[in-house]
Amino acid sequence: MSFRVRFTQDAQADLDRLYEFMLQRDDGDWSIATRSLDAIRNSIALVETSPFTCGKATPGNTFLRELLISFGAAGYVALFEIEDAKTVTVLAVRHQREDDFH
To answer: How far apart are CA 69 and CA 47, in angstroms?
Structure first.
């Protein structure tokens, strides 16, 4: 079974924000910023086939899940929802050291 993965506008804005953050943090090194986005996108490919392997975001909702994404000394967390038997929607992406989703 394969799921279609889509991003909300907020999740896409999170990717843009994280890219800009990496550029600023690493003195404009676009290769690191690009590698971070590649790591996020490559990891999110997991939910195309196995979204239920990711941890539940809240105990009461089986369909709201979090994907941990390794990158460097920390990484990212993608919040997503399994909409139906064919669709997964990424709701937000944040750095693991951020307080919470925006």
So the answer is: 12
